[in-house]
C-alpha cells in the first residue's frame, strides 16, 4: 500500500531577488513498512523534501499525498491534526521540552490526542520499555545523554502509533556507536511495529542500513534503489 | 451547539491539568526574570492598595464626618426642597414617619432638623443667619456639633429659648455668653415673628460660611419661632456603613407613604463634596493607572522574551501536532500564574499595611494638621480595607497583564512550525 506519494513536487525559495530551487519535479512513491533513507550532500533538498512530506511547508508546485489524501491543500489546523495522528518527527537536535520529564515528554502527544491519563501512563511505560529507557522516566532531558535523549525523541514519535516517522539527520549529534545503536532501534521499530521510516542522513552507517536508498542532488532524485 | 459527553469533558479537564503543570514549570525556567516580574506586580498591587486605601479611607472619614453632621447618609425631605429650601417645603414630622424609619433595621440613628434663614440682631448689630433647629439629645449620638463648642455649652433637651452661635457670627454681633439676641423670621404662615434667645455657647464648625451664620436652637423653639408646629426641613439618617445607602434608600422610598417625601443620598444633597471627592479620586486613579501601565511594559517585556526564546521549542511542538491555540493557552496560563502570584502577594502586603494604618493612623502635624482642623477634621491619615479596593486593583492588574501579553500571544498564534524550528 502506498503511504506517501509526491507528484511533480517543486519548492523554490525566493527572497525577491534570488530564487533557489530546493526541489525540482520530485515524483516519489513510498510503500507502507519501508525503511527509506534519503541521502545526498548538503543543499541537495533532503530536509526540504522531509518538510513537504510532513506538512511543515507548502510546495511551490506539485502535490503530496499521505495515505491518498492531498496534504498540500490542507489548512493549518488540519495539518496539525494530521501530524499528531499520522506522522512522528525526529529532529537532529533532540528537541525535548526541558521542563518536562522523559515520561511527560513522551506522554505529551497522547495528551493532545485526549487519551485518558491511566491509559497514557500505560502506553508511555510500554514504549519506554521497548526502547530500554524506562529507568529514565522521571529524569529531565538535561539529566540524560544525547543518545538517550534521541531515544526519548523516538519514543515520543512512535507513541501515537503513526503511519510514518520522519527523521532529519537523527544521528548528526551522536557518536558513531550511539548513532549505530539508534539506527538499530529504528530498524527494530520498523520491523516489529511496521512503522514506515523516512530518514534524511548523510551518515554512512545510516545509509548502510537503508532498506531503500534515495539519493538526491540539486533537488532532484539522482538514484532510487531498493535494498531489502 | 456542540455537546460534550462526560468522557470528553474529562479529557478536556485532563488536558488542562497537564497544561497547568506545564505552564507552572515554564514560568520557573528563568527564575530570576520571573521573580523580578512578580516583584514588580506585587509592588504595583501593594502601592495601589495602600494609596487607594488611604484615599477611600479618607473619603469614608470625610463622608462620615461631614455627611454625619450635615446631610446624614440619607436624607428624607419633601420633593423639591433641595432646589427650593424654604419653609414652604417643610413637612410634618409624624409618628408614622418615625415608625417607618424605626422599622428599618439598618438605620442606626435619625435626626429631625428644621432650617430657616433669619435676621439676628443684638443692639445695633444685625446680621443674616441660618437656624439649625435640632433635637440636642438626638444630636449627641448623631453629629459632632457638641464636640465643636468652643465656648459655653451645648444645648440640652430642656434648653428653652437658648441658642449657640457660629463663632464669627458671635464675634460680629460683639456679644458675650449669656447675652440676649433677637431673631426675626418669616414664619410658615407668612407673617414676621421675632423672639428673644439667650446665647449659651459658641461653635467653630470649620466652614466659614456656617461659622458666619449658624444659629443652633432646640427644634421646638425653631418650630415656635417659625410658626411651623411639628414641621421639619429634613430628617437626616445614619447607617452603619456607606455600602448600605442604596438599599436603605430604596426601602425608604417604597415604605414612606407620604407621596411628597423623597429619600436622597448624601451624594444628592452634598453635591460639592461629592464633586470634590470625585475629582480627587480621578486624579488618584490616573496616577495609579500610570503606575500600572509601567508595570504592563515590564510584563510585556518578560512575556515577549520568554516567548521569543522558546520559538524553536514552539516550532517543534507544532511539528509534533500541537495546534497554535494550545500553545497560546499554555503561554496564557503562564501569564495568569505570574500575575496572580504578584497580585495575591501585593494584596496581602497592602492589606497588612492598610490594617496597620487603620489601627495606628498617621497623625499629621504642622500646617497639614492645621488645615485639617480648620475644617473640623482630626488631623490623621486613615485607611480602608474595603473589598472593592482589592477586587478592583486585582482585576485591573490582571486585565492589564493580559492586555500587555496580547502581542506575544499573537506571535505564538501566528507562528509557523518551520519558522519556529529554524529560529535561532
UniProtKB/TrEMBL annotation, chain A:
For whether the record's keyword set contains Glycoprotein, the answer is no
GO cellular component terms attached to this protein's record: membrane protein complex; plasma membrane
Which ranges carry the ABC transporter domain?
4-227
> InterPro entries this protein is in?
AAA+_ATPase (IPR003593), ABC_transporter-like_ATP-bd (IPR003439), ABC_transporter-like_CS (IPR017871), ABC_transpr_LolD-like (IPR015854), MacB-like_ATP-bd (IPR017911), P-loop_NTPase (IPR027417)
Keyword hit for ATP-binding: yes
Q: Name one Pfam family in it.
A: ABC_tran
Q: What are the protein's GO molecular function terms? A: ATP binding; ATP hydrolysis activity; transmembrane transporter activity
CDD domains linked to this entry: ABC_MJ0796_LolCDE_FtsE (cd03255)
Query: What UniProt keywords are attached to this protein's entry?
Result: ATP-binding, Nucleotide-binding, Transport
- State the family it belongs to: Belongs to the ABC transporter superfamily. Macrolide exporter (TC 3.A.1.122) family.
Task: Kindly provide the name given to this protein in its UniProt entry.
Answer: ABC transport system ATP-binding protein
Source organism of this protein record: Candidatus Kryptonium thompsonii
Automatic annotation (TrEMBL), chain B:
Cellular compartments per GO CC: plasma membrane protein complex
Task: Name its GO BP terms in alphabetical order.
Answer: lipoprotein localization to outer membrane
MacB-like periplasmic core domain residues are 34-252
Per UniProt, subcellular location reads as: Cell membrane
Domain named ABC3 transporter permease C-terminal: residues: 286-417
Concerning its family, UniProt says:
Belongs to the ABC-4 integral membrane protein family. LolC/E subfamily.
**How is this protein named in the record?**
ABC-type transport system, involved in lipoprotein release, permease component
**Which species expresses this protein natively?**
Candidatus Kryptonium thompsonii
Tell me the organism's taxonomic lineage.
Answer: Bacteria, Pseudomonadati, Candidatus Kryptoniota, Candidatus Kryptonium
Amino acid at each position: 500500500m502506498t503511504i506517501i506519494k509526491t507528484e511533480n513536487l517543486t519548492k523554490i525559495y525566493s527572497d525577491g531577488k534570488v530564487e533557489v530551487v530546493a526541489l525540482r519535479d520530485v515524483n516519489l512513491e513510498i510503500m507502507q513498512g519501508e525503511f527509506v533513507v534519503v541521502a545526498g550532500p548538503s543543499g541537495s533538498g533532503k530536509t526540504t523534501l522531509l518538510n513537504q512530506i510532513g506538512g511543515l511547508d507548502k510546495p511551490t508546485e506539485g502535490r503530496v499525498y499521505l495515505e491518498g489524501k492531498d496534504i498540500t491543500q490542507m489548512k493549518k489546523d488540519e495539518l496539525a491534526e494530521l501530524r499528531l495522528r499520522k506522522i512522528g518527527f525526529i529532529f537532529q537536535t533532540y528537541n525535548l521540552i526541558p521542563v518536562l520529564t522523559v515520561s511527560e515528554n513522551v506522554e505529551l502527544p497522547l495528551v493532545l490526542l485526549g487519551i485518558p491519563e491511566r491509559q497514557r501512563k500505560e502506553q508511555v511505560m510500554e514504549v519506554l520499555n521497548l526502547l530500554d529507557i524506562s529507568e529514565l522516566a522521571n529524569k529531565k532531558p538535561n539529566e540524560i545523554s544525547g543518545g538517550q535523549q534521541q531515544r526519548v525523541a523516538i519514543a515520543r514519535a512512535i507513541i501515537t502509533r503513526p503511519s510514518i516517522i520522519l527523521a532529519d539527520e537523527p544521528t548528526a549529534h551522536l557518536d558513531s556507536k550511539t548513532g549505530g545503536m539508534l539506527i538499530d532501534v529504528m530498524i527494530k521499530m520498523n520491523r516489529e511495529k511496521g512503522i514506515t521510516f523516512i530518514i534524511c542522513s548523510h551518515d554512512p552507517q545510516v545509509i548502510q542500513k537503508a532498506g531503500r536508498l534515495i539519493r538526491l542532488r540539486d533537488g532532484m532524485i539522482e538514484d532510487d534503489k531498493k535494498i531489502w | 451547539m456542540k455537546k460534550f459527553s462526560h468522557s470528553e469533558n474529562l479529557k478536556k479537564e485532563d488536558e488542562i491539568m497537564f497544561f497547568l503543570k506545564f505552564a507552572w514549570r515554564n514560568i520557573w525556567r528563568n527564575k530570576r526574570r520571573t521573580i523580578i516580574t512578580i516583584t514588580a506586580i506585587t509592588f504595583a498591587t501593594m502601592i495601589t492598595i495602600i494609596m487607594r486605601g488611604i484615599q477611600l479611607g479618607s473619603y469614608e472619614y470625610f463622608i462620615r464626618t461631614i455627611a454625619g453632621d450635615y446631610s446624614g447618609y440619607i436624607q428624607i425631605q419633601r420633593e423639591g426642597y433641595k432646589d427650593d429650601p424654604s419653609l414652604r417645603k417643610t413637612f410634618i414630622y409624624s409618628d408614622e414617619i418615625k415608625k417607618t424609619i424605626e422599622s428599618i433595621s439598618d438605620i442606626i440613628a435619625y435626626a429631625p432638623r428644621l432650617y430657616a434663614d433669619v435676621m439676628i440682631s443684638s443692639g445695633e448689630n444685625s446680621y443674616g443667619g441660618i437656624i439649625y433647629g435640632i433635637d440636642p439629645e438626638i444630636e449627641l449620638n448623631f453629629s459632632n456639633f457638641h464636640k465643636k463648642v468652643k465656648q459655653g455649652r451645648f444645648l440640652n433637651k430642656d434648653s428653652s429659648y437658648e441658642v449657640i452661635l457660629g463663632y464669627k457670627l458671635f464675634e460680629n454681633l460683639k456679644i458675650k455668653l449669656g447675652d440676649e439676641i433677637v431673631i426675626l423670621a418669616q414664619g410658615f404662615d407668612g407673617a414676621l415673628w421675632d423672639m428673644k434667645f439667650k446665647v449659651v455657647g459658641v461653635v467653630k464648625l470649620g466652614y466659614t460660611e456656617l461659622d458666619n451664620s449658624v444659629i443652633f436652637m432646640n427644634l421646638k423653639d425653631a418650630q415656635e419661632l417659625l410658626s411651623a408646629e411639628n414641621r421639619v426641613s429634613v430628617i437626616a439618617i445614619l447607617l452603619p456603613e456607606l455600602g448600605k445607602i442604596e438599599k436603605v434608600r430604596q426601602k425608604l422610598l417604597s415604605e414612606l407613604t407620604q407621596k411628597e417625601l423623597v429619600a436622597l443620598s448624601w451624594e444628592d444633597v452634598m453635591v460639592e463634596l461629592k464633586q470634590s471627592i470625585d475629582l480627587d479620586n480621578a486624579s488618584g486613579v490616573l496616577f495609579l493607572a500610570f503606575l500600572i501601565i509601567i508595570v504592563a511594559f515590564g510584563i510585556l517585556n518578560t512575556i515577549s522574551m520568554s516567548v521569543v526564546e522558546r520559538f524553536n521549542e514552539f516550532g517543534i511542538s507544532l511539528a509534533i501536532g500541537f495546534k497554535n491555540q494550545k500553545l497560546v493557552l499554555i503561554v496564557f496560563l503562564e501569564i495568569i500564574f505570574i500575575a496572580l502570584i504578584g497580585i495575591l502577594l501585593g494584596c496581602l502586603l497592602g492589606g497588612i499595611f492598610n490594617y496597620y494604618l487603620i489601627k495606628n493612623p498617621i497623625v499629621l502635624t504642622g500646617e497639614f494638621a492645621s488645615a485639617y482642623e480648620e475644617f473640623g477634621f482630626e488631623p490623621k491619615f486613615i485607611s480602608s480595607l474595603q473589598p472593592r479596593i482589592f477586587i478592583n486593583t486585582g482585576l485591573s492588574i490582571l486585565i492589564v497583564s493580559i492586555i500587555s501579553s496580547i502581542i506575544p500571544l499573537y506571535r505564538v498564534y501566528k507562528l509557523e512550525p518551520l519558522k519556529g524550528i529554524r529560529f535561532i
